[in-house]
Each structure stands twice: as structure tokens, then as C-alpha cells.
Amino acid sequence: MKLVTVNASKSYEIIIEQGILAKAGQETAKRISACTAAIVTDNIVDSLYSDVVCKSLQETGFSVCKFVFTHGEASKNLTVFGQILEFFAQKQLTKSDLVVALGGGVIGDIAGFAASVYLRGIRFMQIPTTYLAAIDSSVGGKTAIDLAAGKNLAGTFYQPSLVLCDPDSFATLPEKVFADGTAEAIKYGVLAAPKLFDKLAQGQAQLDLVNIIEQCVKIKRDLVMRDEFDNGDRQLLNFGHTIGHAIEHCSGYRITHGHAVAMGMVTISKAAWRLGLSAQDCSEPIKAALLANNLPFSSPFTAEQLALAALLDKKRRLDNITLVIPIKIGQCVLHKIPVSSLYYFINQGILEEA
């Protein structure tokens, strides 16, 4: 078992252990008194893991109810969000009860957002079942839904009460979904962990999952504790995301988050090198690491399309937008540019070599 403690506006523990799904109730009961636990999940995760989690919670005194929605980013919308809130009300959840987000990032985002606004906030816990959610979205308290205009444009900062991560659940992930998580792990390597980057660049992500998850979570934990509400250093976690979110939006979310971030990391790194902002051309080692993990590196969209979509990014402030620039593998900085320069910057990242 690995245990990581987050001391933000709320202190909570992240427990990483193979087989912990079967002990979810036991670990929860150590920290939260028995109450009604409302599980929010999707139809795929429901068929795989709901029974074991429900059984474990019930055996330790929790009453369990469950809301299931159709899997995929398309469900992270106002309609499903409203349905979840109505479900909580119909089940008469109180401030003493608990929301359980069981699944990947979409589930954690929308369930956490619903928990944060229902009765002005009730407790929730994250049980991530994807690699990407385990190392990224389940930690740090960001919750959100998508609007027609763009990704994650409505949400809150709302820390969970507990995170239980079972790497054994990744065994049921399709290769492409697992690779989404690897893209985020590569991001952490570029940000702050060159040895982790080297390990991932060798295509060895599946050989040491518990330690990789712990290392990624600790990097995020440290940034969250310094800047919980994303006004400074925490924005470093968005490396590759400004372009990545634009790629997702332009594709109608047919390109998944991790694959889009992979493309975004290369685009930003190439542009930074060409514009003299980096000490090395990080795009080449990142590209090699992505290829070793069956991830793409080239965006199918034009600079104009991406710049237009990126203007909706949450990191925009007035006429400026903050980008994350890799100085070298293991070190990134925040770099503010005028919105009027965004097209030129992106274009530098996607232009072919002369």
C-alpha cells in the first residue's frame, strides 16, 4: 500500500493498493461514519466494478444507491449533471451522506461537481478506475462539466474526502484508454521527473504502476498544496492542455483527452524551441516517448482552428493567455503571451521543418 496525504483546504488521503476495491468499505469506514453512499458511475464501469464496491460498502454499514449514465465525454453535460442532482434529491441525501465517484475522469468530474453544489456541498470520494484518473483528475479537487462552447467551462474547486486507487482495475482498460493515462504520466515526467520520463520513454509504464502512480500523485499534490485554486504554479499541470483541449473541441471529442494532450505537448514544445524559449528541443524526446507508448504527436487541425478553440481556455485572462513551456525535460515554466500572438505561436509548433 502507498499512502499520500494532501493538505489543502481539506486534508485527505490517497491510498494506492492493488485489490483495494474489495476493501473500499473497510477503508472508507475508517474515515467516514456509515451513511448513505450514492455511487455515480457509467454503464461500462457499472458492469465491471459496481458489485464489488457496493458489497464492500454494505458490509461495513453503508446504505448504497446508484446513478448510472452512458459512458463518454458526451455525457459530461448540463443535462446529465441535472439528472444527478435530481437523483440525489429523490434519494433524500443529506449533508451527512457521501457521493462515490466510481470510474474515470468524466465520472469524477461530473460527480464531484454535483457533490459540490448539492445542498451547497456534501462529501464525496474518488475511486478512479482508469490510469488517467488515478494519476491526475481524481486528485486536487477540480470538478467540471463541458458546455457547448468548450471543455470544463463550468465547475468548482472541491476536494474529495478520500481517494482509493486500485491499479488492478486498469487491466480491463482498452489499450487506447490506458495510453491516455500514459500521456499524462509523460507530462509529469516533463514537468518535474526526468527519471520517470526516461522509464516511460522505454515503454515500461505497465511494469511499475504503483510506484508511477505514487510519483505522479506526489508531484500533483505538491503543486496543489502550493496553489490550490490554480492562480500560479498549479497551472504547470496544464502542460500540453491548452492545445490539447482545443484539439478535443475541434474533433467533437472524438480524440480522447490523453491523445489530444500528447499532440499538445509536442506542438507547444516545438513552438517554444523555434521561438527561443527552451534550452533544448523537448519535442523530439517527447515525440519518441509518445511513439514508444502508441500515442500520436501530430494534430490534424490547422493553427487557425486550434487558436480559435484555445481562446475559450480557462487560463485566458483578459487579452493574455498563459502557456506552459518546457525549458528541458524535468523543468517547465509559465509563459504569458497576448491572445493576438496565439495563432503565430501554434503555427510555429505545427509547421513542417524547412
Describe this structure in words.
This protein has 354 residues and is of the alpha/beta class. The chain has 2 domains: 2-172, Rossmann fold (3-Layer(aba) Sandwich); 175-350, Up-down Bundle (Dehydroquinate synthase-like, alpha domain), CATH 1.20.1090.10. It is built from 13 helices and 12 strands. The strands form 3 sheets. The protein has a 7-stranded mixed sheet with strand order 1-2-9-6-5-3-4. The longest helix is centred in the middle third of the chain and has 18 residues, at 175-192. The radius of gyration is 20 Å and the shape is globular. The N and C termini lie far apart (51 Å).
Features:
354 residues; alpha/beta; Rossmann fold; Dehydroquinate synthase-like, alpha domain; 7-stranded mixed sheet; 3-stranded antiparallel sheet; 13 helices; globular
Strand order of the largest sheet: 1-2-9-6-5-3-4
CATH superfamily of the largest domain: Dehydroquinate synthase-like - alpha domain
Q: Which architecture of the largest domain does the CATH hierarchy give at level 2?
A: Up-down Bundle
- Tell me the strand percentage band: 15-25%
Structural class, please? alpha/beta
Mean pLDDT: 96
Query: What is the CATH fold-level name of the largest domain?
Result: Dehydroquinate synthase-like, alpha domain
> What is the general shape?
globular
The beta-strand count equals: 12
Helix content: 40-55%
Secondary-structure element pattern, one letter each: EEHEHEHEHEHEEEHHHHHHHEEEH
What is the domain tally? 2
How does the major sheet shape up? 7 strands, mixed
Radius of gyration, whole Å? 20 Å
